[in-house]
């Protein structure tokens, strides 16, 4: 079905009420690689109930962590084959520290649909409030749908954020596990692109690739640990563009610059000649 931007842009996707608990948070953190240093107190704050803190990127899975079916890309005016879709961008703004358990309501809408010629970009925005009605977080994401452009929509403005032309202030190498995608899919994203070799080949990849949101969460943790002393309450927002794939088992090279009160981040894969993984990445301290 061709994309109908007049119907899609601004479409109200309704409200969803959901709950999560301590075990959900622990599973998410472990799927990001938390606990790799199992005797360090700071690491155990991610991986055990004692003094548990919640990485704000948990917001990306909180509503769907118990999902067991592959996602569908069907919205008003939009119906796209899952094999054509990859994550484009992601931002989470934490309005206050996320609780280790709770119930919340998410209200989502299609904020924009961009026509990139050979591809379409669908932008979704979600506001999440707690049981008291106070805001918990705002999430804004985009998906990149190959072969779905050319419908006559607007292209959108560029939002590139170039890192400083100097050596990074901090550099951290973050290993991923060969089974990282198989772990992360238990957080509610059963897209076969990340587990089924045949499906991945049909989508144009040599092998299943790591979930973009897994990379997004792993890097958020790495930056929080390296630049904010592991204090998740100091993360105000975290945004990034998915610039390239990650194959499970690769290393993520995370470069960080302190610039204008923000932390600018660039992520590459040294296993593939420093191929770009995340770009335009910014952590805004709370």
UniProtKB/TrEMBL annotation:
InterPro entries: HotDog_dom_sf (IPR029069), MaoC-like_dom (IPR002539), MFE-2_N (IPR054357). Gene3D superfamilies: Hotdog Thioesterase (3.10.129.10). Residues 163-262 form the MaoC-like domain. GO terms for molecular function: (3S)-3-hydroxyacyl-CoA dehydrogenase (NAD+) activity; 17-beta-hydroxysteroid dehydrogenase (NAD+) activity; enoyl-CoA hydratase activity. Residues 18-147 form the Peroxisomal multifunctional enzyme type 2-like N-terminal domain. One of its GO terms (biological process) is fatty acid beta-oxidation. It holds the Pfam family MaoC_dehydratas. Belongs to the enoyl-CoA hydratase/isomerase family. This is Acyl dehydratase. It comes from Prauserella sediminis.
């Amino acid at each position: 079905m061709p994309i109908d931007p007049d119907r899609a842009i601004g479409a109200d996707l309704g409200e969803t009420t959901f709950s999560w608990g301590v075990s959900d948070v622990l599973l998410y953190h472990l799927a990001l690689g938390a606990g790799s240093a199992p005797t360090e107190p700071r690491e155990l704050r991610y991986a055990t109930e004692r003094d548990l803190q919640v990485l704000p990127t948990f917001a990306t899975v909180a509503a769907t962590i118990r999902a067991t079916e592959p996602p569908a890309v069907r919205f008003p005016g939009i119906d796209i084959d899952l094999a054509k879709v990859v994550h484009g961008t992601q931002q989470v703004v934490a309005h206050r520290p996320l609780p280790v358990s709770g119930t919340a309501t998410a209200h989502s809408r299609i904020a924009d649909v961009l026509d990139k010629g050979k591809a379409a970009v669908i932008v979704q925005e979600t506001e999440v409030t707690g049981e008291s009605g106070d805001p918990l977080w705002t999430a804004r994401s985009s998906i990149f749908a190959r072969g779905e452009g050319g419908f006559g929509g607007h292209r959108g403005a560029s939002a590139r954020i170039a890192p400083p032309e100097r050596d990074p202030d901090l550099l951290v190498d973050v290993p991923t596990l060969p089974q990282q995608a198989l772990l992360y899919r238990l957080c509610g994203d059963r897209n076969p692109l990340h587990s089924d070799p045949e499906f991945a080949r049909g989508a144009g990849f040599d092998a299943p690739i790591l979930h973009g949101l897994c990379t997004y969460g792993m890097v958020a943790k790495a930056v929080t640990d390296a630049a904010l002393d592991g204090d998740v309450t100091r993360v105000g927002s975290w945004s990034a563009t998915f610039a390239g794939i990650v194959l499970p088992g690769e290393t993520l090279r995370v470069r960080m610059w302190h610039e204008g009160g923000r932390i600018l981040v660039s992520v590459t894969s040294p296993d593939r000649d420093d191929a770009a993984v995340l770009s335009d990445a910014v952590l805004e301290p709370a």
